[in-house]
Amino acid sequence: MRLLLNILWFVFGGWISGTAWILAGVLLAITIVGLPWTPAAFRMAGFSYWPFGRIVIDRDDGAASCLLNVLWLLLAGWWLALHHLVLAFGLAITIIGIPFAWQHVKLAGLALTPVGKAVVEV
Questions:
Q1: On the CB side of 28, how many CA atoms lie within 13 Å of its CA?
Q2: Which domain holds residue 48?
């Protein structure tokens, strides 16, 4: 079931979300100053491409993660969260799109604070 949901997710918009995360990571990596955020962005891109059957857990709640998350929110997090919320709204209108909308809502929350998170298989 997870494979089917992930394939449907990817075909019907997951590739757009994952590509947005990769774009954010690449743009931050280009600036050299944004290199600390690049691994988190790429980790979340993989999760955004294939979210079903995986969960995100807190890996590190230190002061450095908190500071990096605040800066991330200002630089890239707000527009990624907005992207996921817009897609969630569009999917939630249909009954069949509700599971996918829920994944976008989770990704929107994750877009605000991705540093210090790890993606694990369920």
A1: 23
A2: 2-121
